[in-house]
Specification:
24% strand; elongated; alpha/beta; seven-stranded mixed sheet
């Protein structure tokens, strides 16, 4: 990789270089962006830099590859950035790595990606690997350790572990000189990059402007300790340390139990113990669940869980259905969680639920990672070890992580009728209600946890009454929050 050429030519390719209004001089990337909309999985949010600006960076980087070097990109989405990297760069081979995790209908998205690659005549140039990056690099090390990745672009999951591990696993394939593009932003991303640089003197930070550009030079052995000290996020580091130590302790306890219904309750940390007691011991949601089952069709039941956390609400719903032998034939549900780390736990817990229902009820569960409130755009969720309080509002010194908003109406375009809606999103409930009155008209029963520090619950009552949810029952009343059940 000719890094010097890349550094010299990059500013020349933009108007307003060094300003927030910078954009590529060429309009070909704008046209490409319109041809191939870059829709990313909900657990993979890209940087704050515009798509066209990133496309120009990748295109120049690939143009500066040396002979026999390859381009490798983790996170392909619909292929726009990959296609941009290869525009008028017909020689280099490109490895494209993505298992489309976090997307609805992954096979459909894979087909769309393949169609876009074919449309631009890149089938022979792109080697697509349908797997996560960990499996890819492990298998590549065994099958082709001689591969030289001159340009590496990572735009997969944005959590700390994924960011750092992706760099560590790619490291053995870097030639004497290489360029690394991390198409993400946020505290966790920055700290992962700093930790990689701290342990890898060959790597230096070239540019931080919505994305991270890193140079790799095997002859470079000096680490810029000033940058590491200035940008070090001590709170994040301590949080990661605390989470790790606590996780080890709870893993040793291995606290789980099969309920009489067959549902398996598993508790991994103190906050889950609190939530478990609220839902299973105190039965906080039992009245809404039973009422919704009573009002629903005797064959089908459709629920929406916004702020699913690790899935205890869904497990309680299954528990009640099985205990009471509710004569359902089909259970359909959508579970939405905004925290990247909690979402991973959710996928693991819920995977065990259908096993206890398969021989009795057909189950279709859709798990979605993203924020709910606005219909589009990006936001931040502030996470801490007590993940029951993760919120878009800064809480203490919780760590902010970039997450995209999802459009709920796209999830319910075919079946807008919802038998039971549960919403607990730590202060974003009013924003959700204001933006989704159309969706709420199809809801028969709903249970909300309202957070009084962020809005007046009466505002929520008025909107719910407007869409026909006129009956209300107070389930819990605390100083800073309350739980209410609504039905038509």
């Amino acid at each position: 990789m000719d890094c010097q050429k890349f550094i010299q030519q990059l500013p020349e390719l933009y108007n307003n270089w060094g300003q927030d209004s910078l954009h590529p001089r060429s309009d070909r990337f704008q046209k490409l962006s319109e041809q191939v909309p870059e829709i990313s999985p909900t657990n993979q949010i890209q940087s704050q830099m515009s798509k066209e600006n990133v496309m120009q960076v990748l295109n120049l980087a690939v143009a500066c590859l040396e002979e026999e070097e390859v381009y490798c990109q983790v996170g392909c989405f619909q292929g726009a950035s990959l296609i941009a990297a290869l525009l008028n760069n017909s020689q280099p081979i490109a490895y494209a790595v993505d298992d489309f995790a976090g997307l609805d209908s992954p096979l459909e998205k894979l087909t769309k990606f393949a169609d876009n690659i074919s449309q631009f005549g890149l089938e022979e140039q792109v080697i697509f690997c349908d797997q996560d990056f960990e499996d890819f690099f492990i298998e590549l090390q065994q099958a082709a350790p001689e591969i030289k990745i001159g340009v590496y672009c990572y735009q997969g999951s944005s959590d700390y572990r994924s960011q750092l591990l992706s760099l560590l696993l790619a490291k053995p394939f870097f030639p004497e000189k290489a360029l690394i593009v991390v198409n993400h932003s946020g505290d966790s991303v920055q700290q992962a990059i700093l930790d990689f640089i701290a342990t890898t003197p060959e790597c230096q930070l070239l540019l931080e402007a919505g994305i991270y550009l890193l140079s790799w030079d095997r002859n470079q052995q000096d680490v810029d300790t000033n940058i590491l000290k200035q940008k070090r996020n001590n709170f994040l580091i301590q949080s990661l340390k605390g989470v790790t130590e606590e996780a080890v302790l709870w893993e040793k306890i291995d606290l789980k139990w099969p309920l009489r219904s067959g549902v398996i309750a598993k508790i991994d940390c103190p906050v889950e113990w609190v939530i478990y007691n609220d839902i299973f011991v105190d039965g906080e949601y039992d009245i809404p669940i039973n009422k919704a089952l009573e009002l629903a069709s005797k064959e089908k039941f459709n629920f929406l869980d916004i702020g699913a956390n690790v899935g205890f609400f869904t497990l309680r719903l299954a528990d009640i259905i099985l205990r009471n032998q509710i004569p359902l034939t089909y259970l359909q549900g959508t579970l939405i969680e905004g925290s990247p780390s909690v979402y991973r736990q959710l996928t693991s817990r819920i995977s065990e639920m259908p096993a206890c229902l398969d021989d009795k009820i057909e189950v279709e569960l859709k798990l979605v990672h993203g924020l709910v409130g606005n219909r589009q755009g990006n936001g931040q969720i502030f996470e801490g070890s007590f993940h029951g309080m993760n919120s878009i509002f800064p809480v203490g010194q919780f760590i902010g992580t970039d997450v995209p908003y999802i459009d709920l109406t796209s999830l319910y375009s075919e079946n807008p009728n919802i038998d039971l809606l549960k919403c607990d999103i730590e202060g974003s409930e009013l924003l959700f209600l204001e933006n989704y009155k159309d969706l709420l008209t199809g809801v028969r029963c709903a249970v909300f946890e309202f957070h009084h520090n962020y809005y007046d619950p009466k505002q929520c009552f008025d909107i719910l009454a407007e869409v026909g949810l006129i009956n209300r029952q107070l389930l819990r009343d605390e100083s800073t929050y309350s739980v209410h059940f609504f039905w038509k």
